[in-house]
Specification:
The structure holds two protein chains of two kinds. Chain A is α+β, with helices and mostly antiparallel strands. Chain A is built from twelve helices and 14 strands. Chain B has two domains: about 80 residues, Beta-grasp domain (Ubiquitin-like (UB roll)), CATH 3.10.20; about 70 residues, DNA polymerase, domain 1 (Orthogonal Bundle). Chain B is globular, with a radius of gyration of 15 Å. Classes of the chains: A alpha+beta, B alpha+beta. Bound molecules: flavin-adenine dinucleotide and FE2/S2 (inorganic) cluster (2 copies).
């Protein structure tokens, strides 16, 4: 279980890092926390010639509020997000999702940027990023651009990031007053990854009805997705038990569910509806 | 190809030229002869290889030695001494928190991190805090008691 040989550079600025990536286009890979990449390299599923470690770049690890947004540096660890008292106050979905990733050691080392860039179909962050309407900032030697979470996840382990681009920051609109959120997950007992994970962020009007809801679901399909039919059923609805169950039943509308040894496609669809119902219920409390 | 790194392990600075692919756990065990850190699964699951880097418990089989360049690493050898055990080590002794002992160094490092973050954890918090460490012998009950002992001892 030893990776194939590779070269290693740890630049100290983002400019240097993107220059290295454009110089070594085909054979370089970014190393963040390494908790998806190193296991893959040990299994020789990944054999990059060069690792560009972005862990020594100053100023990629932070949580701050600016321009009506929460801004999180790509190298911020799961644990830093899990333990942020401020986030628990203004956007509890983030620490709640962070605390359900892997185990303590994984959360100490793994990063939000690494997880999003990896786009594992069973990862937790993609569901949260979708439900929070996150914008992902990508930097390359050509400049910087923003990618909406809804456009970011392309397929199994595939994102909209282009060759040579580094995900630098995650921007999330600060949730409005009367927002309720929840992340609930059916974890695979051995790996801890999501068999199904449902992230919900909903806003209620003064009368308590649902004004708008965003629902991100991971684990079910080849990539995380927004459950548009659930959101539509919730918009304008009163959040009682019956309405919530009826809306949650649409959790996998139009979705091609994955099946594996642990959970068949049919079982995953069932779980998605159950966890959607529970997550919406939790978010509307 | 090789990279010069300097890593402080249990307070001692080590300068080494290492291949980038050398895992931290192999640096500790094979290069520095600190075999207290165990390798269980090699696949980031079991936690036997847990060490503390700059205050954070991590799995040293999933970290490259080059990533630890400049860092301060504590292994089981550096946690306490035979004459002066760390409270978690003492807890494992007093409460029989081990049988074969394979998982123990990792359990103790993760337990020490847990008490750093929560000084009086509940049994539930202990079980949650040790979810990254597997034990095939004890059934965990005595491990939880060992950590509870350490928590009360540290007060
Ligand atoms: C035992 C174990 C259990 C786990 N359980 C869970 C779980 O329950 N839920 C879950 O969601 N995840 C889980 N994970 C995965 C973990 O969350 C990883 O930390 C995460 O998927 C990758 O983040 P990283 O920082 O470690 O990235 P790395 O492993 O360093 O990188 C992952 C990939 O993304 C690329 N990349 C990284 N950062 C950037 C960037 N800023 N810009 C562009 N590309 C980048 C890399 O090139 C690589 O291809 C688990 C991992 C382990 C080892
Ligand atoms: S040997 Fe590192 S987690 Fe098992
Ligand atoms: S004591 Fe044997 S594995 Fe834990």
């Amino acid at each position: 279980m030893i990776p194939a040989q590779f070269d290693y550079i740890a630049p100290t600025t983002l400019d240097e890092a993107v220059a290295l990536l454009s110089q070594h286009a085909d054979d370089a890979k970014v190393l963040a926390g390494g908790h998806s990449l190193i296991p893959a390299m040990k299994l020789r599923l990944a054999q990059p010639q060069l690792l560009v470690d972005i862990g020594r770049i100053k100023g990629l690890s932070y949580i701050r509020e600016e321009g009506g947004q929460i801004r999180i540096g790509a190298m911020t660890t799961h644990y830093q997000i899990e333990s942020s008292a401020r986030l628990r106050e203004i956007c509890p979905l983030l620490p709640e999702a962070a605390g359900q990733i892997g185990d303590v050691q994984v959360r100490n080392k793994g990063t939000i940027g690494g997880s999003l860039a990896h786009s594992d179909p069973a990862a937790d962050w993609p569901a949260a990023a979708l439900a929070l309407d996150a914008e992902l900032r990508a930097v390359s030697s050509k400049g910087e651009r923003g990618i909406k979470a809804a456009d970011f996840f392309v397929d199994l382990f595939t994102t909209a990031l282009e060759q040579g681009e580094i995900l630098s920051e995650i921007r999330i609109p600060i949730p409005k007053a009367r927002t309720g959120q929840a992340y609930l997950k059916a974890a695979q007992p051995a790996s801890g990854f999501a068999v199904v994970g449902v992230a919900v962020s909903l806003v209620r009007d003064a009368a308590g009805k649902c004004e708008a809801a965003a629902v991100g679901i991971t684990g079910v399909a080849s990539k995380a997705y927004r459950a548009a039919a659930v959101e539509k059923a919730l918009a304008g609805a009163s959040l009682d038990e019956k309405m919530i169950a009826a809306a949650a039943a649409h959790a996998t509308d139009g979705i091609d569910a994955n099946g594996d040894l642990y959970a068949s496609a049919q079982y995953r669809k069932h779980l998605a509806a159950v966890y959607a119902r529970r997550a919406i219920t939790a978010a509307s409390r | 190809m090789k990279k010069a790194i300097s890593v402080t392990v249990n307070g001692v600075v080590h300068h080494q030229d290492v291949e980038p692919r050398l895992l931290l756990v192999h640096l500790l065990r094979d290069v520095l002869n600190l075999t207290g850190t165990h390798i269980g699964c090699e696949t980031s699951i079991c936690g036997a290889c847990t060490v503390i880097i700059d205050g954070q418990a991590v799995k040293s089989c999933t970290i490259l030695a080059v990533q630890a360049d400049g860092a301060s690493v504590t292994t089981i050898e550096g946690l306490g001494t035979e004459a002066n055990l760390h409270p978690v080590q003492e807890g494992f002794w007093e409460h029989h928190g081990l049988q074969c002992g394979y998982c123990t160094p990792g359990m103790i490092m993760a337990g020490a991190q847990l008490l750093d973050r929560i000084s009086s954890p509940t049994a539930d918090q202990i079980r949650h805090g040790l979810e990254g460490n597997l034990c095939r012998c004890t059934g965990y009950q005595n491990i939880v008691e060992a950590i509870q002992y350490a928590a009360s001892k540290a007060k």
